[in-house]
Write a structure and sequence with these properties.
- Strand 3, helix 3 and strand 4 form a beta-alpha-beta unit.
- The longest helix is centred in the C-terminal third of the chain and has 20 residues.
- Helix 3 crosses helix 5.
- Helices cover about 45% and strands about 20% of the residues.
- Strands 2-1-4-3-5 form a 5-stranded parallel β-sheet.
- With about 160 residues, it is an alpha/beta fold.
- The chain starts with a strand and ends in an 8-residue tail after the last helix.
Length: about 160
């Protein structure tokens, strides 16, 4: 299964970008033996508004793919629970899962309604570049959990 971190906008430099790229690369290596791949997909819609951004994300969603929308109103899952969700999608025959980060105004109600999971990183407001890095790390962490690697510690 391919796990795509899909984000509105393009970032080409900065510490957060380097961190995101590093975690995606780590996830690629760890996921090989698990039947998992990771990638970052940046989407620049033609219009800079919530409806156009959500439409662009939905247009990039392959048929049958699982969609997890990152949204402050979502469920606050543990890393282990997220790993189990990704594994369940993989084991259920999903060829792809997308973790979607919206633009400045977030996702539309239509996108949230379509999502298989609406996921929150807590009640705080986070900068988009940092959310990318955090989501990439959680993808990597999920893979290490599924691989039985000691990177993740329950506590």
């Amino acid at each position: 299964m391919i796990i795509s971190l899909v984000a509105i906008g393009r970032y080409r430099s900065g510490l957060e970008t380097a961190l995101t790229d590093d975690y995606i690369a780590r996830a690629q290596l760890t996921g090989r033996g698990l039947g998992l791949q990771a990638r970052l997909v940046e989407i620049v819609p033609r219009k800079d508004n919530q409806a156009a951004e959500s439409a662009a994300i939905l247009a990039a969603l392959p048929a049958g793919a699982a969609l997890a929308a990152l949204d402050e109103r979502g469920d606050n899952l543990s890393s282990g629970a997220l790993a189990r969700k990704l594994a369940a999608w993989r084991d259920g025959g999903r060829a792809e899962a997308m973790l979607a980060i919206g633009g400045a105004d977030g996702h539309t109600e239509d996108l949230r309604a379509r999502a298989d999971l609406v996921l929150s990183f807590g009640a705080q407001t986070w900068p988009h570049k940092l959310v990318r890095a955090m989501a990439a790390e959680q993808i990597y962490r999920a893979m290490t959990i599924l691989a039985g690697h000691p990177y993740h510690r329950e506590g």
